[in-house]
What we know:
Blueprint: H1 7-15, H2 19-43, H3 46-52, H4 57-64, H5 69-81, E1 85-88, E2 91-94, H6 96-102, H7 105-123, H8 125-129, H9 137-140, H10 142-149, H11 153-166, E3 171-175, H12 181-189, E4 194-199, H13 202-214, E5 221-225, E6 237-243, H14 251-262, E7 265-276, H15 282-292, H16 303-312, E8 316-317, E9 321-322, E10 329-335
Parallel strand pairs: 3-4, 3-6, 4-5, 6-7
Antiparallel strand pairs: 1-2, 7-10, 8-10, 9-10
Helix pairs in contact: 2-7, 7-10, 11-12, 14-16
The structure holds S-adenosylmethionine.
The site of S-adenosylmethionine (SAM) has 18 residues, from strand 4.
Amino acid sequence: MPRLFHARTLLTVLRTGNPRARLRATRDAQAAVRLHLGAAGLATGVLDAVAAGPGGTTELARRLGVADEELLGAFLAVLAAGGLVRGDPAHWALAGAGRAVVGDDLVRATYEAFAGFHTGLYRDLGELLAGGPRRRDVAEQGGVIARVSAAFEPFVEDVLREVVAAAPPRRVLDVGCGTGLQLATVLAAAPGAEGVGVDVDADAAALARRTLEERGFSGRATVVQDDVRRLTGDRPFDLALLANVVYYLPVQERAALLADVAARLAPGGTLLLVTTVVTPQLFSRHFDLLLRAQEGAMSLPAVDELTTALRDAGLRPREPRRIAPGAPLVAVAAVLPA
Ligand SMILES: C[S@@+](CC[C@H](N)C(=O)[O-])C[C@H]1O[C@@H](n2cnc3c(N)ncnc32)[C@H](O)[C@@H]1O
């Protein structure tokens, strides 16, 4: 198509405002459209339908039970412009980028989480600032939160294996064990060890039992559904794991939790704390805001706050370490003096 604008006019347009801000706004807008396009491609089932077998718009409308075929055609054209599908109204197929979305649960969960509650936070922020009801994402979106967090799992596993190799534990406590994957990693790395997973959430506890059973650890592991602060049992643990849990507790309850877990350690035992911390990074601040907007006084801890609380609990914290590239995810191992 021939060009009809002059470079001079383009310059005038850019000069009437802040060119950098205008370009940035345009880039952000395009990223937002791409995010919501991918999310809608998944939420509507259109990408999965095309993945199940190429077809024309009419055929796809039939398979999906779509009433407005014309709108579906326009949506498929957007997906094509966004590089997720290719073809034309007579024959749509998945493009390489579309296959990568459909076939990777982490990508799927990322679209779902970020087009959903992560950005929903900002859509509803005015209402929240006006004193409206707090959000319930953590309570209601546990599944997708766990799927997105899976991205960091390999880094956490590295740390777990390193801690186990340095001091092989006989008894392991996993506080807030979630799906039980980390307890399974520890039990695999420490073949003689027994483990107790505790999680206050019934679904998480059930999931952890299933994970441990599937991995062949039911003989060496018990999962208790309860608040760790009510956990009874007198035999001490050599290793206690507290991964991605502290920020769910109000600041004023964290020191007591750490002291409570420290009190369950045998002399020389290790408490391994893994958590996202507050840093000046955009994602860290965003996550902190998301937590503060929830019901239940959640917020990201600062590294110093953690090391102080660990010392106050009678432990000797080692140097906190960043464990995943580009993410404010930190591990601190703290030892109970023998
Ligand atoms: C984000 S998940 C982390 C799961 C797992 N540790 C991981 O890193 O993947 C946090 C878990 O801690 C549990 N939790 C929070 N406070 C708890 C408490 N006081 N006692 C036991 N579990 C708790 C929640 O139910 C949730 O399953």
